[in-house]
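Protocol step 4 of 6: structure prediction from sequence.
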Amino acid sequence: DSHMNFPIYTRWFIRDIDLFVSIDSIDVSDFVAQLGCRSICLGNVISKQDFYPIDGVKKDIDVSFYGGPKRDRKEFLAFLRAQNVGLQCFGSSFGAWLDQEQLNQIINRSKIGLAFNKYGYVDDKIRMPKNFTLSRLITGHNFEYILSRTFVLAESIDNFDRFFSEGREIVTFDGKSDLLDKIRYYLEHETEREQIAYAGFEKTMVHFEGALQLEKMANLI
């Protein structure tokens, strides 16, 4: 949780460490680098052993979401339910806890997976360092869908193109209407949707799978 941890306490000793590793925040990693500390944003440490494609699975879920329906997510989910786009929500917040294997099956059955990337705390309650601006972070949902070779609609993140090419390896959205338009489009264009899902999966397996990212960190250390 770099967005929360860095402003609260990490910034006070950042000049005393040799390497700063962020899992989820590109902008925090960049800001730390500007302070003169060696820094890397891994983006993902999720393993292909936990999330993976299931051959022959029937994709019978149009749009899936799992996790906590907090803050802005509640508004997005309520909006999508009203639009009748086939949204199904999973997890303990929706009445049924899923283990990792069950979650992987749900993801594999999904035509489109939603990844909300906005931080989940009230930023005006935290005193920010000078010139540091909060943006969105990379949640684990992005890579859980991608490693399962399922098309993901990811909430837009600054500099996400360092990981994926927009429209070829991932598709992002910014706001409710943009999300709705892209859900409707990609539900109707299966071939294009699956090509993007496959390209994102291939890129991740070569460059960003969890074991590879941890190896990058170990090499820096």
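Step 5 (inspection) to follow. The radius of gyration is 18 Å.
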